[in-house]
Automatic annotation (TrEMBL), chain A:
GO terms for biological process: proteolysis; ubiquinone biosynthetic process. Pathway: Cofactor biosynthesis; ubiquinone biosynthesis. Keywords: Hydrolase, Protease, Ubiquinone biosynthesis. This is Ubiquinone biosynthesis protein UbiU. It holds the Pfam family Peptidase_U32. It comes from the Bacteria. The lineage of its organism: Bacteria, Pseudomonadati, Pseudomonadota, Alphaproteobacteria, Rhodobacterales. InterPro entries: Peptidase_U32, RNA/ubiquinone_mod_enzymes, UbiU. It comes from Jhaorihella thermophila. One of its GO terms (molecular function) is peptidase activity.
UniProtKB/TrEMBL annotation, chain B:
Pfam families: SCP2. It comes from Jhaorihella thermophila. This is Predicted lipid carrier protein YhbT, contains SCP2 domain. SUPFAM superfamilies: SCP-like. InterPro entries: SCP2_sterol-bd_dom, SCP2_sterol-bd_dom_sf. Residues 57-137 form the SCP2 domain.
From TrEMBL, chain C:
The lineage of its organism: Bacteria, Pseudomonadati, Pseudomonadota, Alphaproteobacteria, Rhodobacterales. This is Ubiquinone biosynthesis protein UbiV. The gene is ubiV. PANTHER family: PEPTIDASE U32 FAMILY (PTHR30217), UBIQUINONE BIOSYNTHESIS PROTEIN UBIV (PTHR30217:SF11). Pathway: Cofactor biosynthesis; ubiquinone biosynthesis. Forms a heterodimer with UbiU.
Length: 332, 173, 303
């Protein structure tokens, strides 16, 4: 059994150090612009901070993976090219890309830089993955969060590259990299601008009874009663009405987070080379708690023990967790 | 699908008043100003992360205390002071939560999103400014609460330790 | 005036008779030049294709239409993987790919790129053109600035460039079937409940705003995207093809209105007035084109 890598999120330099100290084998992060899919206010790294982050991680035997995983639009490619060039110059261990043009640029100009395929590329079959390996020399793929463990095992047996799966955090409902719900409502695009439900257009209106109504742009997509748990203010976690239902319901998914702790042994056995924790937008406290727990759990599985994790449910959306699509095809 | 529902922790608990009787506001103001200057002096990069939201006016409402806090994180014109509830100033954004939860946040010990999910943190107004402030504060290494307590030497640190213990007993983070 | 009018694939689950009748009318009465055929959304719905496809192709070709076959957009399970492999082996018809797994199979042979293929920039377009792409329908969310740059890049490489000008905007796809979910079923046991909603299943906000429609695994806009007023500008940029998507409306009338617009027989305002007379079941939108919220509609003067 090979030792899988634990890949952890860092939205800030402090979170990067926290993740490394908590046992991350690799940390992924991005620059402060639209070149990555978590282009949120106050988040991400300047080139100087990236250089320091790389030094900190490398001194402690950890890797830094640079996310350049949004989609440059025509006329704006330079920003993505500069991000890749800066990553190469600063010594990151890999770049994570989604766009075919960016992948080709890395392959041509930085042939020695490891190329990882982002979940945003939506490579959900062995053929799609083999395409990126054949054309651009991709070394590792992060498939969408919609596959069962059995399907991951099958894919792994048919691809000539490493596979990295999400094990904790946001539960992506839509095929990532194929969603423009945010743009329809806000005029800012997940693929082109790296934003999902931009905070500037999120509004919480508190009612006299303690309920909270969530709005994004011109649309209201949920109303939480005073005692109801909340989730991220995203369109895909909203409640709507439809003729087939008597009451408003979570048309896509309820607020819930992914937690695959119980599936770790199966995923390792399936040959997954790396486990990814979602949450570059989360705090150091989240990073410390989730990373240290998964570090211990992976080490326990490798030592032949039952993995034991603390209760992480307090950190989850809607205070609920699920194995989502990974458990069974019934999720679909 | 495995789903584990989680009950909301008891949010009442002992109020902070038991440990820190609120002094008259005029006594509080110079202390708050010193705290703000200290944190700003120790962590100048914080203001870069705030970007355009440096001049935003935040009201922080520690529920259960008789005052709210007004914060304008502008290095040119730093404002951090207490205001009586009946005269709450106009703000761009308002953050309300239990005192202990807010303390855990600036102590680097709690996750703002998690407090929001459990409805222990209420946000109104300019959400982007709040997210930005949260991200900027979270990049401050160590604990802002400790930096502030350090201003007052051993007694300051003792008070912080007592508050942390009280927060832990409450079942907070 | 130049510009080719195309009819995109039917995205919804219409029953076989409805589809056959629809294409018969298109063959006989519609001025569209090219028709895209095939099931793009759900691999469970494909039996129609197997049973009627040859007949429909023949009917359309006899009506003078060029027929292009569109692939599935989501390829995960073995059935879908096999379908994509077989689809890419077709050599009797031009094909349009909507999933990267098709790029693997096609391996440099000529093909078109569908709107779900994430072709956002000139490098991606160039790379794919070098690997056999002859034509690209751009993602629906691209603003005018980007479409202009893409059209220029496409012209340089001799690649056709197509923009959707009418019909609901595809906003997201998933592995989960939201039609089945609404009816408390799983995807494997959906009993084709999506057939009940030939123009999609409406999702309305809790404050009663019409917002989205669900079509199986796909989520679309409630509004009908409409770039009637923008067609002159697009043509000046070098956009060569204009795509109309089938909705539950009088599509012969819709395609005639757009054909007149493309031929220069009607201006933007007149075209919008004629579309209004059709009493479409949803408002029009063109926000994406203007770099704004996709649901918004800017009048011809703002364009």
């Amino acid at each position: 059994m090979s030792r899988p890598e634990l890949v952890c999120p860092a939205g800030t330099p402090a979170a990067l150090r926290t993740a490394v100290d908590a046992g991350a084998d690799a940390v992924y992060c991005g620059f402060q612009n639209a070149t990555n899919a978590r282009n949120f206010p106050g988040l991400n790294f300047t080139p100087d901070e990236m250089a320091q982050g790389v030094a900190y991680a490398h001194d402690r035997g950890a890797k830094v993976l640079l996310a350049v995983n949004s989609f440059p639009t025509a006329g704006r490619f330079d920003l993505w090219r500069d991000a890749v060039d800066a990553g190469a110059r600063l010594g990151v261990d890999a770049v994570i890309v989604a766009d075919i043009g960016v992948a080709e640029y890395v392959a041509e100009r930085h042939p020695d830089l490891r190329l990882h395929l982002s979940v945003q590329a939506a490579a959900s079959s062995p053929e799609a993955i083999r395409y990126y390996v054949r054309e651009f020399g991709v070394k590792r793929v992060v498939p969408p969060r919609i596959l069962t463990v059995a399907e991951i095992r099958q894919i792994k047996s048919e691809i000539p590259c490493e596979i990295e799966t999400f094990v904790f955090g946001n539960h992506g409902l839509m095929v990532e990299g194929r969603c423009c719900l945010t743009n329809y409502v806000t005029g800012l695009s997940t693929n082109m601008d790296g934003v999902c439900s931009p905070a500037a257009q999120v509004h919480y209106d508190k009612g006299p009874d303690g309920s909270v109504t969530t709005r994004l742009g011109d649309f209201t997509f949920d109303c939480f009663g005073p005692d109801e748990q909340a989730g991220y203010p995203t369109i895909c976690k909203g409640r709507y009405t439809t003729p087939a239902r008597d009451e408003s319901y979570y048309a896509f998914e309820e607020p819930v987070s992914l937690n695959l702790a119980e599936l770790l042994p199966q995923l390792i056995e399936a040959g997954v080379e790396a486990f990814k924790i979602e949450g570059r937008q989360r705090s150091r406290a989240y990073v410390r708690q989730v990373v240290s727990n998964f570090r211990a759990a992976i080490d326990q599985v490798l030592a032949g023990q039952e993995p034991h994790l603390d209760d992480l449910v307090a950190l989850t959306e809607g205070q609920k967790q699920t194995v989502g699509a990974f458990g069974s095809k019934k999720w679909r | 699908m495995t789903e584990i529902a989680h009950g909301k922790p008891d949010a009442t608990g002992a109020g902070p008043l038991r440990f820190l009787p609120p002094p008259p506001l005029f006594l509080l103001q110079p202390i708050l100003a010193r705290v703000a200057r200290r944190v700003a002096g120790l962590h100048p990069s914080l203001f870069d992360r705030l970007g355009p939201h440096r001049t935003a006016c935040f009201v922080i409402d520690p529920r259960g205390l008789p005052f709210v806090l007004l914060l304008v994180p502008d290095p040119e014109n730093l404002v951090f002071r207490a205001e009586p509830r009946r005269r709450e100033p106009q703000s761009d954004a308002r953050i309300a939560g239990n005192f202990f939860d807010l303390l855990a946040l600036v102590d680097g010990n709690s996750d703002g999103d998690a407090l929001f999910f459990s409805r222990d943190l209420d946000i109104t107004g300019n959400t982007e400014a709040v997210v930005c402030l949260r991200n900027a504060l979270d990049d401050v290494e160590g604990s802002i609460a400790e930096d502030a307590a350090g201003l007052f030497g051993a007694p300051g640190r003792a008070i912080l330790a007592a508050l942390r213990r009280a927060g832990d007993r409450r079942g907070g983070s | 005036m130049t510009g080719t009018l195309t009819l995109g694939p039917i995205l919804y689950h219409w029953d076989a008779d409805t589809k056959c009748d629809f294409y018969a009318r298109i063959a006989d009465e519609s001025p569209v030049d090219t028709v895209y055929l095939g099931e793009v959304i759900c691999s469970k719905r494909t039996p129609f294709c197997e049973r009627h496809l040859a007949r429909v192709i023949d009917r359309l070709e006899r009506g003078g239409k060029r027929v292009v076959l569109s692939s599935l957009s989501e390829v995960v399970i073995p059935r879908e993987r096999n379908m994509m492999r077989d689809f890419c082996a077709i050599d009797s018809q031009e094909i349009e790919l909507n999933n990267t797994s098709g790029l693997y199979h096609i391996d440099g042979r000529p093909h078109r790129l569908g709107p779900l293929m994430n072709v956002y920039n000139e490098r991606t377009l160039g790379g794919l053109a070098a690997r056999g792409a002859t034509h690209a329908t751009l993602p629906v969310e691209l603003p005018r600035r980007v479409v202009g740059a893409m059209a220029a890049a496409a012209r340089e490489r001799g690649v056709g460039v197509e923009v959707q000008v009418f019909g609901r905007a595809s906003l997201a796809v998933s592995a989960r079937c939201y039609h089945a979910r609404a009816h408390c079923r799983t995807k494997d046991n959906c009993q084709f409940v999506c057939e009940e909603d030939p123009d999609g299943m409406p999702l309305t906000t809790v404050t009663d705003q019409s917002f989205l429609v669900v079509n199986g695994i796909q989520t679309l806009s409630h509004s009908y995207l409409c770039l009637a007023a923008e067609i002159d500008e697009m043509r000046d940029m070098g956009v060569s093809h204009f795509r109309v998507l089938p909705q539950r409306a009088d599509m012969v009338a819709v395609t005639r209105i757009f054909a007149d617009r493309i031929a220069g027989r009607a201006d933007g305002a007149e075209t919008l007035a004629r579309l209004e007379e059709l009493n479409l079941p949803a408002p029009l939108s063109n926000g994406f084109w203007h770099g704004a919220e996709g649901h918004r509609h800017f009048g011809p003067r703002a364009a």
